[in-house]
Inverse folding.
């Protein structure tokens, strides 16, 4: 076989290999065995919040390099106004890093009462890497995900604790978190967290919100159930995150609004 | 009694070792701000292909892989520690194989591209295999493996093109000869 034929044949074989890899990407997730999820005993956060927990808004966006929309699957919609609450979940999902063997997801159980309109959950993950930006769930496009709950309580008159968050030219946001149950670590006992992003769309696609661990890259879930469970999963390979839950409400909440959030770790390997 | 001639001459061992050291130097010096899997292949494969293209003996790429793997392990270049050795050996071994199959004409752009792409893909496959071996569920590993394969192919191929260009310039300048061995 002459030189050109050998090069051509090698190129064809590499093409076949790429085809197999793409097929594995598409179908492998469903075919390959996965560990049985196992709930690790211990509640990492269990706290109730009132409408005073919404410290930001009214606004149309959530933090990223460029402002992201809040409505699942949508960009920034000027006809919507949202009130934002940030909650440190005291937990981290882990995946992919060879130094970390206990892989798993964070299970979030919520119980709401007096919800007016829609509440949408998004998630942020602060990495411990120096050059790694804050991660968040993908807002639009392939594999975007979020969790939305709709209630039928009467809209409240105002949200006195909320102030609009200013768009930062530095792409860095220092946000107040609304919970007081914090992990016992020096740099995590502060009541603020800094979210920073280094490029358009940076940090999207590593963290996911899913109602089902068999679909770790998540989906948009719409429900009217005021009590429920969903998971935050990671597929990015980072060693871990300081996980921040963003709860966004699309209108002022009544005085009777309460949200209880409980987090646990679920091992997946 | 006649002394047995060593497989690699001193000159070849020195050249291959320098190529191996160059991989580690390039790995520590260049941190391209591309968040694309396999983008480092654009400079990883260059010294290996040049070394194999000059020495033109089976085992040259594997030798480069072995030395660079040992250096990378000692310098702690990534999270796989001692297992780095397998990644570098795979890269070198596969380029070795393709050099042999292509009659060591790695100065040809197509041969350089294919050898570079194959070497970078071998690195990816061994990396993923090791992660599976170390306990990462295969179901997580395959997420995005299609895109990662394509980017490894492209960047490895581009590195191979660069190496082929360098080799052809060295040939034209008379620094190396096509039938030196």
């Amino acid at each position: 076989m002459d030189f050109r034929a050998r090069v051509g044949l090698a190129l064809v074989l590499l093409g076949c290999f790429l085809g197999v890899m793409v097929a594995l990407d598409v179908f492998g997730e469903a075919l390959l065995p996965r560990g049985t999820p196992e709930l690790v005993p211990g509640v990492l956060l269990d706290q109730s919040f009132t409408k005073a927990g919404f410290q930001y808004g009214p606004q149309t966006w959530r933090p990223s390099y460029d402002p992201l929309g809040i409505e699942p699957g949508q960009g920034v919609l000027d006809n919507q106004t949202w009130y934002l609450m940030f909650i440190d979940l005291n937990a981290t999902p882990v995946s992919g890093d060879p130094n970390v063997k206990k892989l798993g997801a964070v299970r979030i159980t919520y119980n709401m009462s007096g919800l007016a309109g829609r509440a949408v959950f998004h998630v942020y993950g602060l990495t411990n890497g120096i050059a790694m930006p804050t991660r968040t769930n993908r807002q639009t496009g392939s594999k975007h995900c979020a969790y939305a709950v709709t209630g039928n309580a009467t809209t409240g008159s105002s949200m006195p604790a909320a102030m609009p968050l200013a768009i930062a030219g530095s792409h860095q946001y220092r946000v107040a978190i609304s919970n007081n149950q914090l992990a016992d670590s020096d740099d995590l006992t502060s009541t603020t967290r800094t979210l920073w992003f280094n490029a358009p769309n940076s940090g999207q696609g590593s963290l996911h919100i899913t109602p089902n661990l068999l679909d770790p890259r998540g989906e948009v879930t719409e429900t009217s159930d005021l009590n429920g469970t969903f998971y935050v999963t990671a597929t990015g390979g980072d060693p871990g995150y300081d996980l921040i839950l963003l709860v966004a409400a699309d209108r002022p909440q009544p005085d009777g609004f309460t949200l209880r959030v409980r987090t646990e770790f679920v091992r997946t390997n | 009694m006649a002394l047995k001639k060593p497989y690699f001459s001193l000159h070849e061992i020195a050249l291959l070792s320098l190529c191996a050291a160059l991989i580690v130097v390039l790995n520590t010096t260049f941190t391209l701000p591309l968040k694309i899997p396999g983008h480092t292949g654009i400079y990883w494969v260059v010294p290996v292909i040049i070394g194999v293209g000059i020495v033109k003996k089976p085992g040259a790429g594997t030798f480069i892989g072995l030395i660079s793997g040992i250096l990378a392990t000692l310098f702690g270049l990534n999270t796989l520690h001692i297992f780095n050795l397998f990644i570098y050996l795979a890269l070198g071994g596969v380029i070795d194989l393709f050099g042999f199959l292509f009659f060591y004409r790695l100065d040809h752009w197509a041969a350089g591209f294919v050898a570079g792409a194959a070497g970078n893909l071998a690195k990816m496959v061994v990396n993923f295999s090791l992660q599976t071996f170390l306990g990462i569920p295969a179901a997580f590993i395959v997420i995005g493996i299609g895109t990662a394969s394509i980017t490894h192919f492209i960047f490895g191929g581009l590195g191979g093109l660069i190496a082929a260009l360098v080799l052809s310039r060295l040939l034209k300048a008379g620094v190396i000869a096509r039938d030196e061995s």
